[in-house]
Amino acid sequence: MARGRPGLSPALLGLLPLAFLAVFFAWPVGAIVRLGMDAAALDVLADPGTWRIVAFTLGQAAAATLVAVVAGLPVAFLLARVALPGMAVVRALVLVPFVLPTVVVGLAFRGLLGGGVLPIVLANAFFNVAVVARTVGGLWAHLDRRAEDAARSLGASRWRTFTAVTLPALTPALGSAAAVVFLFCATSFGVVLLLGGARFRTLETEIYLRTVELLDLSGASALSLVQVTAVVAVLVLGARARRRREAALKLRARVESARRPVGGEWWVVGAAYAVVALLVVPIASLVARSVDGGFAGYRALSGTGHAGSLSVTGWEAAANSLRTATDATVLALILGVSAAVALVSLRRARFIDALDTALMLPLGVSAVTVGFGYLITLDALPGDLRTSAALVPLAQALVVTPLVIRLVLPVLRSIDERLRQAAATLGAGPWRVWREVDLPLAGRSLLAAAGFGYVVALGEFGATSFLARPDTATLPVVIGRLVSRPGELNSQMAYAACTLLMVVTVAVALVVERLRAGELGEF
């Protein structure tokens, strides 16, 4: 077959995100690992209190994962198998919690349930129902119902059919979803900080407290080392589960469109709608609290809170959030699309898997750990980036880029290779093939990735709380400071700021859902 004109291979685009990853992820995290290996750090690792924190971190993550899976399964069935009016609204409502800023969710659950273990578990599960619903639903929609119908015709009950036929077929998607959810819950920061306080601490919040309040850099490094080790192990398991899910999807084709539920399926639909209704409760509660007693909190956003608690006004913080999120999203799109194009262009399976896993690492490693790493490494770069306003968008882009890849990559992989080959046969070089074939077909996905990445950057709290200067504080950082300081006015401002942040997030999430109509992939 004829080839297009020779030129620079699109696979070389992978060097750009890899270089960014090396400087702004591998170097800072590597420095944390080295710092965590000195004698003082070993004392921290030998402390029984450290392992109680590890046990609580893993325990609450496992409990939240179980709750998210149980709640997400009926929703996955609803999205995959049911055709009822208003499904677009349901899909959007399910997506909204996943993209809400952590401080918003933490404050909402604190207003509803107070602090403690149960609120932490429920808040983390609240975030991740969408991951289970969309990841499992994506495979469930492609399962052949004839196997289930055959089991039913042989006398199996609906429960027996589900456990013996459907559930084993869904195992690859369940494993992939559970690994991602566990990872997010184990590295949860804003939720645990707001709901756990000083009594219930995870590795994430302990690293933050040791660095910011105790100035115990060695101890924080040791805990970061433990966390990085656990995250890498979960990422390896998650990558394996994701490959099994993708392989299962390749072997299946959608054999029947969604339909109205029949017989005993209605109780599953009812359970799914109950879960969706429960997801709305914290959001509605937050809005109600923001106007409790009038609009004093909204009016106070033009000031700096009770007794000058803030260095910037609420509106200045909102402007900082919009500006840094825009910068982070643009950078993440450049890096994420470059990585996705490179992964599609590569031919060696092992190299593809290694590169894909490396690019996903920032999604699992603590944002607090990365932010801490910046503080001890980036002074070596020209201009000392630690004091630069550009550092926050760089850190946010590190978090957003893996999400962009996960949204864009499946679309690029789904493009019929014969279209690219036809363009090459007509003389188009690799870059023109990308411009004329891939870009038009992936356009909606790129817009969705931009919107999705924007709201994630808008609400990023972990690394930003480390890196933002007082005069460049973003809205999530300001909310965190307001709720940690006394004064009724500060509380009112925090709820008002949370509501504004949530409104922007919901609006963008609705646009993203419209652009991604019919797609049920991860996130």
Automatic annotation (TrEMBL):
Keywords: Cell inner membrane, Cell membrane, Membrane, Transmembrane, Transmembrane helix, Transport. It is a multi-pass membrane protein. The chain crosses the membrane at residues 12-33, 53-80, 92-113, 125-143, 164-197, 217-241, 262-288, 328-346, 358-377, 389-409, 445-468, 493-512. Pfam families: BPD_transp_1. InterPro entries: MetI-like, MetI-like_sf. GO terms for biological process: transmembrane transport. It is found in: Cell inner membrane; Cell membrane. The keyword Endoplasmic reticulum does not apply. GO terms for cellular component: plasma membrane. It comes from the Bacteria. Its main location: membrane. Residues 54-236, 318-512 form the ABC transmembrane type-1 domain. Belongs to the binding-protein-dependent transport system permease family. This is ABC transporter permease. It comes from Actinokineospora fastidiosa.
